[in-house]
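Hello,

I think I submitted the 6-O-phosphono-beta-D-fructofuranose job twice by accident. Can you confirm which output corresponds to this input? Input:
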Amino acid sequence: MQRIGVLTSGGDSPGMNAAIRAVVRKAIYHGLEVIGIRRGFTGFIEADMEPMRLGSVADIIHRGGTVLHTARSEEFKSPAGRARAWENVNRFGLQGLVVIGGDGSFQGAQAFYREYGLPVAGIPGTIDNDISGSDYSIGFDTAVNSAVDAINKIRDTATSHERTFIIEVMGRDTGFIALAAGLAGGAESILIPEQPFSIEDICDKLCRGYRRGKLHSIIVVAEGAAGGLEIGKQIKQRTGFDTKVTILGHLQRGGTPSAFDRILASRLGAKAVELLMSGATGKMVGIKAGRIVDSDLDKVIACKKTVDLDMFRLAGILSI
Ligand code: F6P
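Support: Only one job matched these inputs. Its output is below.
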């Protein structure tokens, strides 16, 4: 193997740059050449590609976002789009591809290696942490810390004004961010897509708290469970409490990556290159119980990862 490509795809996540750096430097260390593909599969189709050198990844380990930029490509979902990308594989002489992204990106990668047999290694990069085959995906830790930081700040003003705050966090289909940020932020209630909830129960809990003299309440809602604005409206209607809603949105996707995410990204990036060099294909690298592992992309895509319900129940007990 002489030359590999690397791209970032889907929603960006803090730590993707550290992963790109690890892929480029590990590959060059072993004598490989690396082609950076800009704007994910969109750039793959459009040949927005250029060689990366050691200096291309200097001074990026601490930066959020992705220097390769990213996109959600509709065209790559079609055989015609993938055929155009295959032309660029030949044009640039790629013998392997590293895809850093989430579920949708891996489905694209899977279709591509099935059709054309190009060895592919996936690296989980999404703040949602919803990729099976890895306990953590790159960016989740930073996103949770950003959310907790925001909750801390909101708590200050919530206390001063004796208000109820609904804080909506990201998590399209899963409640990983909501659960972690809610537990770490001491939320009264956490709403996640994996667990049914009733507004009545939430309001009862709020009222019990206020009767005990609680000055404020924090409710964390995963966007995939419900809209924060709607929850706020219903709580206000039922309880009459002064209720405010904050949607954290994309601030959770930006910012300097935590040390955890940088270390994870560095380890996963290096492992992805090792896998390609060993001749493996259709794999995703991940971390399980602290160890770097690899799994079949097919299995990763087929399995749904769910939150730890024991942790969810614990958050309920501790916020009684
Ligand atoms: O990458 C995951 C994610 O941040 C989800 O939590 C969120 O629903 C989605 O991306 C938002 O995507 P976009 O930035 O394309 O609106």
